[in-house]
Amino acid sequence: MRNTTSTSTSCVLLTVMLCACGDDQGAGAEAGNEDPTTGGESTGAEPTTGEPEPEPFVAFPARGGIKISKVEANPGVAVPIGKAGAEVSGAERNAFIPRERDTLIRVYLDTPDDWVERELEARLLLTVDGVDTTLTQKLLISADSRESGLNSGFFFGVPKELMRPGLRYQVALWETDFGQEDLPEPAEPASLPFTGTAFVGVESGNAEMRVVLVPVDYSFGSCKKVVDGEAHKEAFEDGLFQQNAVKNVEFTIRAPYKVAFDMTSFNGLSKLVSEISQLRTADGADPNVYYYGLFDNCGTCIGDGGIGGGCTVGLAADITGDGMSDGRFRAAVGQLNGGAAETFVHEIGHTQGRRHIACSGAGVQAQGTDPNYPYEGGRIGVWGFGVRDFELRHPTVNSDYMSYCGQTWVSDWQWNATYKRILTLSGWGTASVAPPVKKDGGVMIGAIDPSGQQVWWTGPGKLSEGRTLSATHTVVFEFADGEVEAPAQVSVREHYPTRNIVAELPEGFEGRELLGVRLRDEDGEHESVSGAAIRRLHVSDTLKSAH
Questions:
Q1: Above 80 in pLDDT, residue 39?
Q2: How many C-beta atoms surround the C-beta of residue 205 within 10 A?
């Protein structure tokens, strides 16, 4: 059975931007039975003049040479879906349109030179799974549409419930009043597509993110600050959701994590990242869960991060790969300040495998920039739109959020890259699909700063599937009954070059007395770290109790 519904877009979505659905009620409409012409009571009868009632206006397709030049979907970045009277093919599109996500549809108009300003109505027909829905909007049209002005053309907020794979559309313009009946019918109808419907192009993949926000309970010297996670949840979740092609962000706030070491230096920042990595392992987090520690160090600038004299406000454990074993490094931290939500999106981006983007105008230049970025100066390249804050983002004013420029948004290039990563991780589901942790399995993980600071711990899983073994780095396990040297994988954090070291635990690790661990690299032997200082997280509590 085929159902048909009709509703105004202002009643569905973007109500902040559109007019109210109901008719205005003036003071006269509030009156009771009093006749305003006589001051007496009204009989309820209408006065008669003997003249015939005027014919009601019946809407007809718009005339006068107006055309729909383009239809665009914008779930966060602009994606043309129709032009020149036809559908834009998948091969011609610049970005993915995720399923079940509120999405802006913009309709661009071309008006002829002799266009007469007047009100028109746009009707957007949406059809999916045998159900038709029509969204409507009336607007005074005086000139061509402008990309910078929503109200210069028609726009519709399509709710997530309709954004399903297979969704098709047609948008058409209609006259709303008398006066244009004698104009000839246009050779090309004021609709797109000209006939039938076209695909919106909604993806079928299930794209979701899972994030745990870890408020930090910080106490060092005279600074004592406990971050209120709930106070920042909305801004953080909105920032991440709006700039990632997801249908949902599962956002959890963990109990505060106590920190009693100095967080005014880069060593402290680096140590906290390592501890948040350990925390996500100790919590038994699924491999597709991101952890983010938010700290307040009383506003102190962390200025020794090796970035040209600027303050470092955030750090990620690694630029991670897309394997389950990379879950150990899906952790980052950031300072609580005026741009904390932007830092959060940036650092989570690193843990999604994204590198810095070079941009024009940054006071401090980012390290390790991605040479494949397509837009000059780090600009986002296409119009962006916030589906929660309802704001447009200019393509040459805003820079990509992985840059160091101040006014940022997501580019379509970054949108596509993270979407692929999100799909991969979403496909893992929950812990039930993760590989089982064996009692004798696991890895040794180290974070070694240029200053010499070392943090070591063990974790479950195996080496990363996406990284090769280093030719110059090995981990030496110092047991009471002898030494074992194991090859290691090495990666470098995106700021001050802290090295992440990962090596497999030797066979029989649990049954041997570990005296210490040291790194051997091209520079020789590093200082040994005592076995007692190494936190053991490679065996779950269940397996430990069964031992």
A1: no
A2: 17
Q: Which residues of 376-399 are buried (b: 16+ CB within 10 A; e: fewer)?
A: eebbbbbbbbbbeeeebbebeebb
First to last CA, the chain: 61
User: What pLDDT was estimated at residue 439?
Assistant: 52
What is the spatial distance between Cα 156 and Cα 124, in angstroms, rounded to a whole number?
8
Rounded distance between C-alpha atoms, residue 105 and residue 168, angstroms: 12
Quick one: which of 547, 521, 517, 519 has its CA closest to 534?
Answer: 517
Cβ-Cβ contacts under 8 Å for 140 (sequence gap 6 or more): 117, 118, 119
SS3 content of the chain, % helix, strand, coil (to 5): 15, 30, 50
**How crowded is residue 155: how many other Cβ atoms within 10 Å of its Cβ?**
24
Which are the contacts of 32, defined by CB distance < 8 A and separation ≥ 6? Answer: none
d(CA 341, CA 404): 14
pLDDT at 44 over 80: no
Cα(195)–Cα(77) distance, rounded to whole angstroms?
Answer: 27
Sequence letter at residue 72: E
CA distance 10 to 15: 5
pTM for the model: 0.88
Residue 226 vs residues 195, 252, 274: alpha-carbon distances, Å: 61, 17, 20
Vertex 54: Cα angle to 48 and 60 (nearest 5): 155
* Nearest partner of 194 among 64, 67, 60, judged by Cα: 67
Secondary structure (3-state) at 524: strand
Distances (CA, A) of 390 to 118, 130, 372, 384: 26, 30, 30, 10
Alpha-carbon span 241 to 227, nearest angstrom: 22
Query: pLDDT per residue over 234-243, tens digit each?
Result: 999 999 999 9
Q: Is the pLDDT of residue 48 over 70?
A: no
Rounded alpha-carbon distances, angstroms, from residue 39 to 25, 30, 436: 21, 15, 85
Q: With contact defined as beta carbons under 8 Å apart, do 294 and 215 qualify? A: yes
Residues 6 or more apart from 498 whose CB is under 8 A from it?
A: 270, 447, 448, 449, 450, 492
Q: Which two tokens stand for residue 163?
A: 């954004």
